Amino acid sequence: MNKKIIIFDTTLRDGEQALQASLNVHAKIQIALALERMGIDIIEVGFPISSPGDFKSIQSISKIIKNSKICSLARCLPKDIDVAAESMQSAKNFRIHLFLGTSNLHISSKLKKNFDEIKDMAVSSIKRAKKYTDDIEFSCEDAGRTSLDNLCNIVETVISAGVNTINIPDTVGYTTPTQFKNIIDTLFHRVTNIDQAIVSVHCHNDLGMAVGNSISAVEAGARQIEGTINGLGERAGNTALEEVVMALNIHKKSLHTFTNINFKEIYKTSKIVSQFCNMPVSSNKAIVGKNAFSHSSGIHQDGVLKNRENYEIIDPISIGLNNCKLNLTSRSGRAAVEYRMKEMGYHHYDYNLNELYIDFLKLADKKGRVFDYDLEALAFFKKQQNIEEYFKLEYFDVQSKLSGLSVASIVLMCGSKINIQKSTTNNGPVDAIYQALSKATLYPILLKKFNLVANSEGEDALGKVDIVVQYKSRNFHGVGLATDIIEASAQAMVNAFNYIWKSTQVDKELEKLHK
Ligand code: KIV
Ligand code: ZN
């Protein structure tokens, strides 16, 4: 009989950990909804003890997600477990995911304990978590470098203590597929109670083997795979879920497996994650890269035209990639825009049609023709920027001279007050505008990242600027989108200032509460 492989997504936890600036609640909800539509079985939504923001996001997601199971991460510490359970109170059912280092390296140099103490911590934490839920996952952190004797020992111990999912992470992406398969095989042969838990794997990609290792583990009997969309995650990332689920699907006959994944949602989910996380997908990325289904050489093009399968193992339509070309210009109506969005796989609840249409018309007037990637950028840009606009850029003017001098003037609405500022620098027009904006807001910030990408090709491409600024040792993210790159840069800074303003309001509320 074919076995179901449970797909566990950790984009919002392990993936988010690797971003330069945290995702806001709104972005996390949109990603969680996309994952649910994709048929993900378990969504790890965060590590609630790590920050009040993460805790709040988990609370909100727990109220909204109905079909996927919600899971939160906790160290083997009483407070972590209590907070994890509290954050998911509104969920219909939830999982607590405990983790603890089991390799000699982690035990001695990170945790400063011995193996017996680790086992005691694990058992008492499982007991505590069991007060809140029957669904407990335990991860042996750095299992890839844990001795097989110790790994079998702790796995048997935690299963006896009552965990129902035992996760084997290759935390530093150290193993090869043969070595990792051997670890899973050994657990099945030596752990006497292994049949009482689902064996899960969580592979990092430091040697580029995360997907291969996960598939090898399935061959050895693993029933849950953990990973992230687009392979986001610490360092070189995690197992890319879109790759692993397609590999499972293509080889389902030899692997005797199936998943709950709705393949048609894959491409769209990848786009949503990439847009909200500001993590572009490389063109040659398997399954979701721009070139994954494009054929360049004459021989390949000829072969594909004769029979797609000559050079394609996956039908792009099966993952929701639609190549229909509809010429969208300023003469196109709302219905055409809505139709095209639907063709691309977006539902009316993914974006706001009224706002999109207004932005579409402005862009169509400037560019003439609006392409799919423009529509996607406009639709998700608004959502990314979804924040109360306390600061609004009403006007700007910059002049740059060959001598190196740049002069910027701005008019910024600060709430209902108008603020006019001027700034002169030797560091170019963007810096001149940034200095004028800083004078208006009075926020002393440090620009930590400035990234400009053309969202399409050609001279009229939409420029997308994403920046990270530091204010009082916290990082804030800002995005700006415009055909004029100076305007996009200014809008990105205004967006970041709005997030800073919002956080100062939250801090004030918290201060009041604690008085
Ligand atoms: O990589 C890792 O070991 C983890 C655990 C918390 C599962 O992310
Ligand atoms: Zn990890």
From TrEMBL:
One GO CC term on file: cytosol
UniProt family annotation: Belongs to the alpha-IPM synthase/homocitrate synthase family. LeuA type 1 subfamily.
Primary localisation category: cytoplasm
Catalytic activity: 3-methyl-2-oxobutanoate + acetyl-CoA + H2O = (2S)-2-isopropylmalate + CoA + H(+)
Biochemical pathway: Amino-acid biosynthesis; L-leucine biosynthesis; L-leucine from 3-methyl-2-oxobutanoate: step 1/4
Cellular localization per UniProt: Cytoplasm
Organism: Buchnera aphidicola
Annotated spans, Regulatory domain: 392-515
UniProt function note: Catalyzes the condensation of the acetyl group of acetyl-CoA with 3-methyl-2-oxobutanoate (2-ketoisovalerate) to form 3-carboxy-3-hydroxy-4-methylpentanoate (2-isopropylmalate).
InterPro entries: 2-IPM_HCS-like (IPR050073), 2-isopropylmalate_synth_dimer (IPR013709), AIPM/Hcit_synth_CS (IPR002034), Aldolase_TIM (IPR013785), LeuA/HCS_post-cat (IPR054691), LeuA_allosteric_dom_sf (IPR036230), LeuA_bact_synth (IPR005671), PYR_CT (IPR000891)
Identification of the protein by name: 2-isopropylmalate synthase
BP GO annotations: L-leucine biosynthetic process
Phylogenetic classification of the source organism: Bacteria, Pseudomonadati, Pseudomonadota, Gammaproteobacteria, Enterobacterales
Classification via PROSITE patterns: AIPM_HOMOCIT_SYNTH_1, AIPM_HOMOCIT_SYNTH_2, PYR_CT
Pfam families assigned to the protein according to its UniProt record, in alphabetical order: HCS_D2 (PF22617), HMGL-like (PF00682), LeuA_dimer (PF08502)
NCBIfam families hit by this protein: leuA_bact, PRK00915.1-1, PRK00915.1-3
EC number: 2.3.3.13
Quaternary structure, from the entry: Homodimer.
